[in-house]
Structure formats: C-alpha cells, structure tokens
Design goal:
InterPro entries: P-loop_NTPase. This protein is of the alpha/beta class. The chain is built from 14 helices and 13 strands. It has 3 domains: 130 residues, Rossmann fold; 105 residues, no CATH class; 68 residues, Arc Repressor Mutant, subunit A (Orthogonal Bundle), CATH 1.10.10.10. Helix 1 runs parallel beside helix 2 and helix 9 packs across helix 10.
Length: 330
C-alpha cells in the first residue's frame, strides 16, 4: 500500500542523489493520517542503503542521543512531529532537533502530520530547515480502484447495490444536542440534513446510470476524501468475498463541546497518542486524559487500545471538517 506516489518518491530519490553529489536539501513528506507514510519511509531507507539509518520520532522522545551517536550520513525520521507537544515546554525537544538539523551536514528525510506541520511552520518556521517539501496528494476514484483491485481477476468480485442502513430515512430530520445553560442541562433540537439521501434521490433521476462498481468507487473516493488508508479500511468493511456491499455512508455529524473538540484536535495532530502523552497536554488545563479519551471513543471518533488513543479512519473526514470549522486546526 499504496502503489502510487511514484512522482513523490522520485523527488526523495533525487534528494539522495543530489546529496551524494554535494547538494543537501532536507526532505519533509507531509500528509494527513493514514496515508501509508511508513511504507514510503521504508522505501526511502532502502534508497539510502548502508548510508542510511531509519528512526521513529516516538523513540527519539525517549532517547534523542540515537541521532547524535548515529554514524550514518542519511537519517530517515518517521513522524518527526512527535518531537513536540502542545504544552508549556512542549517545543524543547523539537527545537533541539531543528538545531541538530541545522548544525549537521547530514541529509534528513522526515515525515510530518499535515496539521502539526502547518502549526509548527507558523510557530517555528519548519520550512527553512526542510527546503524540499513533498505533500502527498489525494487519490481519485480510479487510483483507489486500481489500488484495491490490484492482483484480482476481472469479474472476480460482484458489486451489490444496497440501500444504506436507514435508507428509508427522510432528507431532513431533527436531532437533539444537550447543552448546559445556567446550571441546567437543556435538550436543544436542531435540523440535520442527510446528504447521502439527497444524492440517492438525485441518482434515481439520472438518465445514464453508473455501474454498481463505478458508483462504489466514486462514493468511496468521496467518503474517504481520497485518503488511501481510510479507503482501504472502508473497503475491508464492505468486502464480503466474493461480494462487495456498496452501502457506504457519509459519517454522521459530530456534537462536541469545546474541551472535547480541543482534545480531538490534539489527537488529530498526531494520528495517535499514548495516554501519558495526552496527560502531559491536558494536565495543565485540568482535564483527565482517560476521561476525555473515553468520551471520544464513545462517540466513535477514536479507539483506545491499551495506552494508545488512535483516530478511527472512518471518522477522519468529519473530524477534520469539525476541527477546521472551530479553527482548532488549519
């Protein structure tokens, strides 16, 4: 996963070749969560060969000396954004890393969460340390189809048109949001539009109908927002070999208070966090990491596995829309 981003990997390869010829341009590969960056970094480390060392940013949080002791000329750092946390003193390790990058003649190839990158670029000016910035693009429906059907025979799978769960629902419905007003909890009704139902009704009126397979991948590209990891996750849910059930739906709207939204933004800016890392961020504002993570899990936005709090792929698009609406990420 994924057999794309070849142009982007050529630029990484060019940076390595340029470095061997005496031209150093550090690389930042920037993407939303679930883009398959680990696979790309494995390829980058392979390109570097014996000159390269691959290190995970989370590991550097516990032992930064790995970088300082490394004899290799090319350093491949996964998830470099993990060297900062949104708390007082949370930039200390990142500043140490950037100073190290500046003082060395070695080549650095790094990956960054796109939301962390934009925030840190504003605060610390990351771009001047990594002049070659590679932003991974969204995949279109055709590319997602090619990725997911790779290795399968033509006609091996049957795409079955299904009404999405609750397919008899109305275009406009009413939901209830609970809010605290003057010390009392009040249920406030608000209208909710079902975009999938609108699209379904419009589709019935089209004179030229798509095939079930075409319709599935168009819908998958839209719901996943072209994110290959999210598309693969939704594909696995739809695949009931040899049938593919096409009842994909847009994720529901989410209802969070400001504290919950803030915590979701912290997780979004990393993709996943350990509970102790989340506690470092939330402790100064008197929020419990365990309680906030449990609330987000109950609302279907994150999963908790041991100590790790991770975004749910199927909720990523609606997470991003919600956080941008509140200007908590950009």
């Amino acid at each position: 996963m994924p057999p794309f981003f070849e142009e982007e990997m050529k630029r990484v390869e060019e940076s390595i070749e340029d470095y061997r010829e005496g031209i150093r341009r550090n690389v930042a590969i920037i993407s939303d969560p679930f883009y398959g960056e680990a696979d790309l970094m494995a390829r980058a480390a392979s390109m570097a060969g014996s000159e390269g060392l691959r290190i995970d940013g989370r590991r550097l949080r516990h032992d930064f000396g790995i970088l300082e002791r490394a004899p290799q000329r090319i350093l491949v750092v996964d998830e470099a954004h993990r060297l900062s946390l949104r708390r007082i003193g949370g930039f200390d390790l990142m500043n140490r890393f950037l100073s190290f990058v500046t003082s060395e003649e070695r080549l650095f190839i790094t990956t960054w969460n796109s939301f962390s990158w934009r925030y840190l670029e504003e605060v610390l000016g990351l771009g001047r340390h990594f002049p070659r910035q590679i932003i991974l693009p969204r995949l279109d429906a055709g590319q997602i189809r090619e990725m997911l059907l790779a290795g399968r025979r033509e006609g091996e799978l049957t795409f079955v048109e299904e009404e999405a769960p609750g397919g008899d629902s109305k275009v406009l419905d009413w939901r209830v949001s609970r809010r605290a007003v003057m010390g009392h909890n009040i249920d406030l009704p608000y209208p909710s539009v079902d975009p999938e139902m609108i699209r379904s009704r419009l589709k019935r009126n089209r004179k030229e109908k798509e095939s079930a397979e075409d319709a599935f991948f168009e819908r998958l590209a839209r719901i996943s927002d072209g994110n290959p990891g999210v598309a693969e996750h939704l594909w696995k849910e739809a695949l009931d070999y040899p049938e593919v059930r096409s009842s994909l739906r847009d994720p529901p709207t989410i209802d969070l208070d400001f504290d919950e939204s803030f915590v979701l933004g912290v997780v979004l800016s990393s993709g996943s966090l350990e509970l102790d890392e989340l506690s470092e961020v939330l402790g100064p504002v008197d929020l419990s990491a365990e309680m906030m993570a449990a609330i987000l899990e109950e609302k279907g936005l994150v999963s908790i596995d041991g100590e790790a709090v991770t975004l749910k792929p199927e909720a990523l698009k609606i997470d991003i829309e919600h956080e941008r609406r509140l200007r908590l990420v950009w």
